[in-house]
Amino acid sequence: MKALIKEEKRYPILPAREVNHELVRKQVTGKKKGSASYGIMLQLATSGPDKICLYIQRGKNDLYYGITALDKKGNREISCTPTYLPLAHSIRHLNDKQEQRWIGKKYFSNPINFTLFRNETTLRLIQPDFRQNYVEALWDEIKAYLKACESEIVAHHASTVPA
């Protein structure tokens, strides 16, 4: 996925939330304490000192993505503040959920389940060709979502830039 994002050359990947081999190894072997969440975060825009981002996150059971905000300390809790409610409201029809730390959150149409490896898609990920095609399809789904959200993000960004 990172290679496809980098190919696009449009969105910088933020290193603070980035998945790495050590995180994955610790999660798989059960040596990681706390949240199973990690992923790839892309900066889409700024809003004052905050960053509006797309986050592709591996949660406890599955994989999802959506729009979130980061304050200057890297905290996502600001996503639920009154500052971002207009943006959340304007993109709500594009999302599956709005919850803590998300302006809007969406599940992939063809999901992976990390807890129940009985799911056919999850099992087939071991096949390199299937995995490559699957990741490309996920990225296409994300790009369509971003295109649909883009005008609202731009409108929010313009409304929060100091005069």
Quick recap of the structure?
The chain has 163 residues and is an alpha+beta fold.
Question: Can you walk me through this structure?
Answer:
The protein is of the alpha+beta class and about 160 residues long. It has one domain. The chain is about 35% helix and about 20% strand. It contains five helices and five strands. A hairpin with a 4-residue loop joins strand 3 (about 50-60) and strand 4. Helix 3 packs across helix 5. The radius of gyration is 16 Å and the shape is globular. The model has no long low-confidence stretch (mean pLDDT about 80).
Q: Which structural category do the helix and sheet elements fall into?
A: alpha+beta
Distance between the termini: 38 Å
Reading side by side through the largest sheet, how are the strands ordered? 1-2-3-4-5
Give the tally of β-strands. Answer: 5
**What is the helix fraction of residues, given as a range?**
25-40%
Total of domains: 1
- Detail the poorly predicted runs: none
How large, in whole angstroms, is the Cα Rg? 16 Å
Query: Major β-sheet, in short?
Result: 5 strands, antiparallel
> What count of helical segments does DSSP give?
5
- Quaternary structure of the protein: single chain
Q: Could you spell the SSE succession in H and E letters?
A: HEHEEEHEHH
How much strand content do the residues show?
15-25%
Average per-residue pLDDT, rounded, comes to 82
Judging from the principal axes of the Cα atoms, what is the shape? Answer: globular
